[in-house]
Every structure is written in C-alpha cells, then in structure tokens.
Specification:
Number of strands: 0
Distance between the termini: 13 Å
Radius of gyration: 14 Å
Number of helices: 4
Helix content: 55-70%
Strand content: under 5%
Shape: elongated
C-alpha cells in the first residue's frame, strides 16, 4: 500500500508540474483536463488514473502536444522551445509510467 500511496503522490506532483509548464507557455485546454484527473486522483478515485492513461496514445493526445511559438504558445527563442518540449516529453513519460503503476 505504501508504494501505491507514494506513486499516487508522485503522479499528482508530476501533473502539477505539467500544468504549470503548460500554463506558463499559454497552452489552453490541457490544464483543465489535467485538473479533473488530478482532483480524482487526490480523492483516491480510480477515474483519475483511467483518465490520465486515456490522454496518451490516440490522435490529439498529450503525446502529440508540442509547444511552439507558431502555435501561439508563449515561447521567446528556439532554444527555449527545445528546452520546454524536452520537459514536456519528460513529464509525459513520468506521468504515463506512474499512472500505469497505479492501474
């Protein structure tokens, strides 16, 4: 049970980090969707993990999201664009792995 609790807390923390990254760069839509899942996860409602896992893999999923200035996102330089997208990918991998461990 301790591992489950620990992974749930890690998942919540990674979701918070991802939401912050998206909000800082003007990404709309995704933070609201993540909020719903995060609320469920914090309430020990299994729908949160199910919802997170459903956000990966299909067209228009988190896997497809990239933060680019030409998409209207708040990015000032090409190097920032690269750095932000590396963080986005890292958070996504961690979130998916943690969610799978809670499935």
């Amino acid at each position: 049970m301790l591992g489950f609790r620990s992974n749930k807390e890690k998942l919540a923390k990674q979701l918070e980090k991802l939401k912050l990254l998206l909000n800082c760069h003007g990404v709309t839509h995704w933070p609201d969707r993540l909020n719903k899942s995060l609320d469920w996860i914090k309430k020990d409602d299994g729908r949160g993990v199910e919802e997170i896992l459903s956000e990966f893999g299909s067209m228009g999923s988190l896997n497809d999201l990239r933060i680019f200035s030409y998409n209207g996102h708040l990015i000032s330089t090409p190097s920032e664009e690269k750095s932000v997208n590396l963080k986005l990918e890292s958070y996504g991998r961690k979130i998916y792995t943690l969610a799978k461990s809670l499935e």
